[in-house]
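2024-03-11 09:14:02 INFO worker-7 job=invfold-0412 stage=load source=structure_tokens
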């Protein structure tokens, strides 16, 4: 391919609003063009990389017996009503009516459509297990599109779905997909951190995220220093440290104008870990408006995801003052002590409270707190659990290590969906005795554009990307230094020779200075750059430079083909 004929445009300066290296270099290098917020046109250079990524994924999906399909983006809302997600998902699911006034959606995931296909095809236990997958455009009306291709509204995803007779069979296949994902990311030059994660709108029992550790990541990962534990901060667990002591008498103390943990701790000369704070949410259960009062030790923070998952509600809203006071609670001085029971009030106690003792908590009276509050003696609730957000420095769940926190970008996820979709949508099969059974499902996703961006985040320098061999847009970047006939003739012969070997060559034949060409070469990130000039040809040599290296070496032109074959493992 000649650069002079290729649809390429490079930018010398970083575009306004681009902060992540991948966002900057994808725009500067001419891989993508932004059309609107969260919407990107993929240009020829970027498309070549996405095609390479898809080839890697297709190869690994075929190795685990995947069968490729292609399902519609536009789907009838009835499918999503069957699964229960039509009402559970918020505005990120784009809903509309067609010309016949039928309610439709633009799919953000394809569990409903794939389950509908499975219930059409599946009849006997003899067909199980099987896995079907696709590359498919998705649309998510993302409220905070950012970071270029890292978080977008329209994107192509590889999504795969497996169907099994029981959990044991799913567990076995889940491990095969786990390994397939590690293979995919390794071939893209990435060694991911794998963490347990929230199942979110997908539902199911267990989920893992494959994360690229990077300071530009939007997720926080909690990892044990000894490597024994890793999880997304949203659901990460940790071991709380409790000081055991005899219960002291409850004591009411005046704390005028002191509402925060810091203010109360300073006034009463106690540490934050000796206090209890109340975090209140408005939730909806069974179409009823309710208040969730979460009690947690003062030095800890509440994990909204853990609370939402425990309550099995799609959303949480910070409770407003009037709503809080309607339950007999006083903002800034709230607790569960002396609180009247109500069917629309849920009291949740974090383990730090239910297993702690002698804490300072609100008295439900303006300007007053209670000292020596103890669970069970002074208040009770059946809703005790892990509602705290893990932080760096806390103890790992087994207590044998400390936790560290790093930032990361999610590049893939796998879920054990169980029967959430197959049961709600009536997908079943006949077993050996002729009885109807419900298959259990797994789900496995990778965002194609996000993986391209992650490859840059993982491998770049200050000048541009450094593409891994398997997903590079071209194998060789050929540059002519000078316009002498012998230089151009040599370049033409080299290009023809390499292409006959099956190598993809990008020849920068433009009438530009070498400095301009080399700067663009850095932005295009092709692993090997070979420059041919009049001076080198006097000795029958050309410049060989790897994108990852700073220096070049002179190599006889007759040896370049063999050197390339060895570099790409084709010798």
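2024-03-11 09:14:09 INFO worker-7 stage=emit residues=571
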């Amino acid at each position: 391919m000649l650069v002079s004929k290729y649809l390429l445009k490079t930018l010398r300066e970083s575009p306004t609003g681009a902060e992540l290296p991948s966002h900057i270099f994808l725009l500067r290098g001419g891989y993508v063009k932004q059309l609107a917020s969260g919407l990107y046109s993929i240009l020829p250079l970027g498309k070549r990389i996405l095609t390479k990524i898809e080839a890697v994924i297709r190869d690994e999906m075929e190795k685990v017996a995947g069968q490729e399909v292609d399902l519609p983006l536009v789907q009838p809302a009835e499918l999503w009503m069957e699964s229960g997600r039509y009402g559970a998902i918020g505005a990120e699911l784009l809903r509309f009516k067609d010309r016949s006034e039928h309610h439709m959606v633009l799919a953000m995931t394809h569990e409903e459509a794939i389950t509908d296909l499975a219930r059409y095809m599946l009849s006997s236990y003899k067909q199980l297990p099987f896995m079907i997958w696709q590359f498919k455009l998705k649309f998510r009306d993302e409220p905070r599109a950012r970071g270029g291709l890292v978080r977008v509204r329209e994107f192509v995803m590889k999504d795969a779905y497996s169907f099994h007779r029981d959990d044991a069979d799913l567990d076995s296949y889940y491990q095969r997909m786990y390994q397939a994902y590690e293979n995919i990311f390794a071939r893209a030059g990435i060694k991911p951190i794998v963490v347990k994660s929230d199942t979110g709108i997908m539902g199911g029992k267990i989920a893992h995220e494959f994360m690229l550790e990077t300071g530009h990541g939007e997720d926080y990962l909690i990892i044990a220093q000894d490597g024994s534990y890793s999880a997304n901060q949203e659901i990460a667990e940790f071991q709380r440290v409790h000081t055991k002591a005899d219960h002291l008498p409850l004591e009411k103390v005046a704390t005028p104008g002191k509402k925060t943990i810091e203010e109360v701790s300073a006034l009463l000369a106690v540490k934050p870990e000796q206090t209890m704070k109340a975090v209140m949410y408005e939730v909806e259960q069974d179409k009823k408006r309710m208040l969730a009062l979460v009690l947690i030790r003062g030095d800890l923070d509440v994990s909204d995801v853990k609370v939402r998952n425990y309550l099995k509600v799609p959303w949480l809203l910070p409770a407003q003052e009037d709503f809080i006071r309607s339950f007999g609670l006083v903002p800034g001085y709230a607790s569960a002590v002396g609180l009247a029971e109500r069917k629309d009030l849920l009291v949740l106690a974090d383990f730090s409270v239910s297993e702690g003792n002698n804490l300072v908590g609100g008295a439900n009276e303006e300007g007053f707190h209670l000292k020596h509050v103890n669970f069970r003696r002074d208040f009770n609730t059946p809703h005790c659990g892990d509602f705290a957000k893990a932080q760096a420095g806390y103890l790992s769940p087994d207590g044998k290590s400390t936790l560290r926190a790093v930032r990361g970008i999610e590049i893939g996820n796998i879920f054990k969906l169980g029967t959430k979709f197959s049961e709600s949508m009536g997908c079943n099969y006949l077993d050996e005795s002729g009885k109807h059974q419900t298959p259990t499902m797994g789900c496995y996703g990778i965002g194609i554009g996000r993986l391209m961006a992650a490859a840059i985040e993982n491998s770049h320098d200050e000048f541009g990307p450094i593409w891994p061999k398997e997903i590079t847009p071209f194998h060789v970047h050929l540059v002519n230094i000078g316009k002498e006939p012998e230089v151009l003739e040599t370049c033409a012969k080299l290009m023809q020779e390499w292409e006959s070997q099956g190598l993809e060559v990008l020849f920068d034949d433009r009438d530009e200075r070498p400095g301009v060409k080399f700067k663009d070469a850095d932005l295009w990130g092709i692993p090997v750059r070979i420059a041919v000039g009049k001076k080198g040809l006097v000795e029958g040599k050309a410049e060989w430079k790897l994108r990852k290296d700073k220096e070049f070496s002179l190599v006889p032109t007759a040896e370049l083909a063999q050197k390339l074959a060895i570099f790409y493992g084709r010798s």
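2024-03-11 09:14:09 INFO worker-7 stage=report msg="The chain has three domains: 17-236+405-457, 251-385, 474-567."
2024-03-11 09:14:10 INFO worker-7 job finished
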